Amino acid sequence: PPKSDEGPIVDNETSFVHAQKSSPNTGNSDPVPNLHRLLGKPIVFIAWPKGVKGSKKKWNHLTIDHMTPKYLADLKNGNIGVVLGQKSDGLCVIDIDDDEMVQPFLNANPKLQDTLQTHGSRGQSFWIRFKGNYPLKSSKLKSLTGTDIGEFRSNGNQSIVWGMHPGTKEPYKFVVEKPVTEIEFDEINWTGEI
What we know:
This protein is an alpha+beta fold.
């Protein structure tokens, strides 16, 4: 597979199955330049141990000032989380945990076809930068029947963008490896299945 700073060439027609077959999260190359290209700046990263997506370790104090060259260089040694919401200039994640809900969500939101999308063990995470107002609190996503199917992540939350999934012991994958889409929150269509 390509090195993480080169990344695979993925178009929006790439199938979910194909995306599971390859990952840019391999090798020892520095992933940060590619992550900055995809996520934009400013971004506040969290350094997690390899195969960890969270712990009791405090991270809410981190700001852009902590993103020193040494801190960024050390990120490749473990999993990389991203602080969401205001600290990363409106970057949020819509995390859909149900594989069957991904395509209906995309059908209702064609503007998100080309945004950065990642996959851990199930479903997909859609990385979006919001212009203007957006919810500053995170919330659960539910199906029409009331089943929890994911989460909208904003302030006070983080998501893993690079590294090894603790459950599958496989690398997180880029389903669509394109820069995050920047839109207004009101442009998200929550009708349909979610």
